[in-house]
UniProtKB/TrEMBL annotation:
This is Serpin domain-containing protein. It comes from Flavipsychrobacter stenotrophus.
Amino acid sequence: MRPILSSALLVTIVAISGCGRINNNEDAEFPKVIPIGSLSNTFFVPSLNNDAPSTGNVIYTPVFLFAWNELRQALGGTFTMEKADKMLQEADTTTLFKSALTPGEYETKVNADDGAVQLSAYFKKALPFIETMDTVDKGQPFAFYGYPIKAFGMLHYNEKIAAQIAILYYRTNDHFIIKITPKDQAQEVILAKGLTNERTLAGLLAETDKLIKVGAAEQKSKMKEDKYRLNPIDQVVIPVLRFNLEKDYTDFAGTLLHHSKKTNTLLSATQRTAFVLDEHGAKVESEVTVSTDSMPDINIRRPDLSKLLWFDKPFVVILRKTGISQPYLMMKIENTELMVKR
């Protein structure tokens, strides 16, 4: 299984009118790029502090903020904004993103010519997991809110698969957090189901970290330690996520940037983010497929003991470095627009 993430942003500012677009050369690992506006209920936010729609998918990477930081440096280190959109104002004040990636993990380019400044930021990460997971592909399909989708995970207990999955918090089958450790153990993939409907991704991130601390304390109790162990009667099922989306931040156009030298006008800001999360390793040529006629053995399980860790309702995905709170990808998944339909 791999999560693969690619994100790029081009901001063009000039003192006169013009426009700029990012290069849409596509990576074969990702689906064809489409405008995010073609989806009815999926949104980008440039920072974790931006208000997030309560009922839609929300996607964040810090690439906008890295590009914006480069813009600030290109204009002498400081500027004031006029006619700025509220979302851009909120993004302008955040600095916590800087710990998400080190300079060697992303690229920025700045070109200044004839009073125009063009800048871009780009990063890509591939996180092959230690063991290829099972696929939920044949027979009765897995469903998210009743909609059949492709999924992966651990349908029948497999010691190697279980070894790379850690339960960080567990209250019920509708309230839990897991972590999947990739081959690069300096990274972590966290999935959380059943969080409250926070107004921002920053709020969801804080809630996730708080519950992880609760789980760490509970694991020290012998009375609760079984909740944090994957047993032969347990299952893990995760929807396949796959998208390549582009957005023009049209609301940012026309923002005036005042600095010591002159005033520039922000003409365009375009972001493209691609992501794949499925059962395959990044370079694995083989996979394990488990085919069933129905969801296996559900009726014979003891509901008071079995943990059915199914992400069949809204959940959060967090990719970040181990020991670093700030993510380099965070998503709130509320519907099937980013999933692979059956």
